[in-house]
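[Automated response] Your request has been received and processed.

Submitted sequence:
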Amino acid sequence: MEIGSSESQKYANKNKAQGYVNSRKFTCYKEGYRNKIKRDMVVQKHRQETRTGCLISSYYY
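Generated structure:
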C-alpha cells in the first residue's frame, strides 16, 4: 500500500497571444481503468493493477 499521492498533468491552457499558461489540471496517477484486453488470459506477463478509478484532481488558475 502506498502512502501519499502522486499527480500527473492532464492538460494546460496556454494564452497564445502572450505565451503564458492560464490554467492547469493535475489528476491522480491512478485515474481511470485498464483496458479489458490487458487483463485477458492471452497476456504472458500480467502486471499489477495500478489504475483504480481515483477521482482526485486539482486545478490551478
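Summary generated for your ticket: Strands lie at 7-14, 21-28, 57-60. Residues 7-60 form one domain.
If you did not submit this request, please reply to this message.
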